[in-house]
User: Which sequence fits this backbone?
């Protein structure tokens, strides 16, 4: 959203935001693009722009009017933000006293879905007259987290939004949405920022060697910032292939399991690329050795895919990581990285 100085947190959204505010008349929008490009931030800034009370439309969202301040305080009466319970604290949006406690009591952990009750609330919200007279906005993120019942509940309202209501759905996986939902929305495709813009932004956030983390996260600047804040730096990322080739899992021990699996999948991918004579994508070229065993890499990839699909399974994380790393070691064992290492497990 736009802060009190009039600045957007993600500078590459400035141009798309202005364009949408000037041209977009649709009552239901679907903002989609790769993970981490800033769909949710753009959706909130767009809502803020529509609700802003600055006199000049060119100045909206101004960041300073009463309406903008209410958006900043996450308490605007004409803005409803629906996000899964599991993402509410991370995003700082969408907490709703009506549903959270019972959900938690019933299931024990926060829901990953946008539930039908929340969608019903949004439909009812859209039908109430705007409190401040500039319309009403419902933001849903990530929209593909609506289950089938929730999506069907939304269909009719999307087709004929009541009065002044507008819906903004944001998604990194629009193909996972019901086709009937997609067809009722004006699609707006977002592209990742240019590498130079992303690196400048990361450098301004204090991230050193931003290019390495940007590649590590598949060119997702927001994700790169989170990794950096959680202690992943260019040096530890670049060291990872050699460690795995030696069967060492210590770097991975403090990481959350989904990130470990993601990192090993990227290592497996890059090792296969280099073995086939192509350039790696996620690791520096100097960090990936030639000569990995392709059959063993394939088996490793299949196992990583299987584990990733069952990420919700109550794994014993340390044992699982050890087993995945050992499988990786076998695939990488004959590479130069393993031979160069000081603590290679020797085989008779
Ligand atoms: Zn304003």
Assistant:
């Amino acid at each position: 959203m736009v802060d009190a100085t009039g600045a957007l947190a993600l500078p590459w959204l400035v141009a798309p935001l202005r364009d949408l505010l000037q041209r977009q008349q649709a009552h239901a929008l679907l903002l989609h693009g790769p993970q981490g490009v800033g769909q949710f931030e753009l959706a909130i800034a767009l809502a803020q722009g529509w609700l802003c009370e600055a006199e000049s439309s060119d100045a909206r969202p101004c960041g300073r009017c009463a309406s903008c301040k209410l958006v900043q305080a996450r308490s605007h009466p004409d803005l409803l933000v629906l996000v899964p319970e599991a993402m509410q604290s991370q995003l700082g949006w969408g907490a709703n006293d009506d549903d959270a406690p019972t959900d938690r009591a019933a299931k024990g952990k926060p829901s990953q879905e946008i539930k039908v009750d929340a969608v019903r609330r949004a439909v009812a919200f859209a039908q109430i007259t705007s409190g401040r007279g500039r319309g009403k906005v419902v933001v849903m993120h990530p929209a593909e987290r609506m289950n089938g019942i929730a999506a069907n509940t939304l269909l009719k309202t999307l087709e004929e939004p009541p009065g002044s209501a507008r819906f903004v759905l944001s998604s990194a996986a629009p193909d996972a949405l019901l086709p009937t939902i997609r067809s009722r929305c004006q699609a707006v495709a977002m592209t990742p920022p240019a590498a130079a813009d992303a690196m400048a932004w990361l450098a301004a956030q204090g991230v050193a060697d931003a290019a390495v983390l940007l590649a590590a996260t598949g060119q997702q600047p927001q994700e790169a910032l989170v990794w950096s804040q959680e202690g992943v730096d260019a040096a530890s990322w670049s060291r990872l292939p050699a460690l795995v080739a030696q069967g060492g899992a210590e770097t991975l021990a403090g990481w959350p399991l989904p990130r470990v699996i993601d990192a090993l999948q990227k290592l497996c991918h890059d090792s296969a690329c280099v073995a086939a004579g192509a350039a790696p994508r996620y690791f520096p070229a100097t960090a990936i050795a030639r000569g990995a065993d392709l059959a063993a890499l394939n088996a490793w990839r299949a196992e990583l895919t299987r584990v990733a699909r069952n990420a919700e399974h109550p794994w014993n994380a340390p044992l699982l990581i050890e087993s995945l790393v050992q499988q990786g070691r076998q695939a990488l064992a004959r590479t130069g990285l393993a031979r160069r290492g000081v603590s290679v497990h020797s085989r008779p």
User: Anything to note?
Assistant: The two ends are 61 Å apart (CA to CA). The longest helix spans residues 257-275. Strands lie at 28-32, 79-82, 136-140, 165-171, 186-189. The first strand starts at residue 28 and ends at 32.
